[in-house]
Every structure is written in C-alpha cells, then in structure tokens.
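G., the chain you wanted modeled:
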Amino acid sequence: MKVKTILVSQPEPKMENSPYSRLIDKEKVKVDFRPFIHVEGVPAKQVREQKIDLSQFTAIILTSRNSVDHFFRIAEEMRFKVPDSMKYFCQSEAVAYYLQKYVVYRKRKIYVGKRLFSDLTPMFKKYKDEKFLLPSSDVLKADVPKVLDDLKLDWIRGVFYKTVISDLSDLRNVYYDILVFFSPSGIESLLQNFPDFEQNNTRIAVFGNSTVKAATTAGLRIDIQAPTPETPSMTMALQKYISDANK
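Predicted structure as tokens:
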C-alpha cells in the first residue's frame, strides 16, 4: 500500500532543512509532528522532600537538555546561586553546548562525554572525590546508576522532572499511513490514549531496541525499524520503505 501521510510522535524539528523536509520534498508525502509525551517540572517543594540540598554538591551530572533546564529552574526556585566553582559533567557535546544558555562556558569547569553515559567514566575517575548530583526524570536508564555505583562515587539522584503522557484525544478520528515512535513511552501513550487501537493497514516505525520491545509486547506489527546498518537514521528507514511502497 502506498504511503501519503506520516505522524511523527515528536516535536517538529526547529531547523529549516531537516531530514524530514528532504523526505517530504523527495517522496511528496505529508508529515505531521505531535509529541506523544511531554516533560513537566517537579516543584521545588517536592525536590526538598527528596532531602536534596543544592549547597551540598560540588558537581552536577547532566544527561540531557531537560536535565540542564530543570536543574537551573530548581536552583532559581530555591534561590540558590550556583557557585562558579561547580563542575558539570555532560553526557554529550549537545548537552554541553546547551549549558551555555545558563553559564559562561569558558569560565566554568565542564567535562564532556562522547555519546554514551559510560563515556564519562575516565572523567569520573579523575574527579572521584566530588559530591555529585544527578538531576533526572522519573524514568532513568539502568546503565546510569550502574556506572556511578561501579565507580563508588558519592552521588545522589534527584527527580527534577517527569515524563507525562500527552492528551491525543483530538486525533481519535484522524488516520495516518505510518506512525513513528522513538521510545517505549510513545507506545504507552498510544495505547493509553486509544485503548481500542487496531493497527489494520497502519504501518508502525520504531527507533531503538527498547521501542521495538515495547511495540512487540503491545502486540503491534513493526513494519519499519531503525537503526540498522543499511538505514542508521529513522528518516533513511522511512525513505527506503516509502520509495519501495510508492513505486
């Protein structure tokens, strides 16, 4: 069956010439974006209830842009002036670059990993005597505490924000040829919003092993999967599928 419409369960990319723009131009398909989940900040009162005193930490571990935003939000709500001596351990260059929204980059002690959380291990070993705070979501990948515990670091996790399922009730009678998912939470949102969802001819595209597992467990048929050696990105996987389907 031919593909004419796609719904991506994420916010629309901000950059003008995104891979999705090229997909739209080349394959003449309609692509809509709608976040199936969103992030909500935890109030400072609830952070205090977690027995977290920001003044006790000498280093902050930042795994995402959300963790950056919500650390500084909580600091402001608690009227805590983050000292210039604070060390920042950022999981990736993208997170470190985003940190510039809040601090003067060249004047701070910032340590950057490559991509995986474990890439920070050499830097953690070098500064193992710091007292670390990990501002995180209510959902945390299992490898994060494992790396920190294996290194025997002095660290505390604080839940500063939560992943919440978005209300998609306005999409009840809207149909797309392909639904694109990037996380198990997206699959959960689909089923919670539409408990009577029947896949029928709707193609499901998933990114990552955990999303594959969630879709399979939910009884969904997976038609498009990324990353693979042939299609390392979702847009490449969509491009390949659509070019075959629309011949």
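The two ends are 10 Å apart (CA to CA).

Shout if anything looks off.
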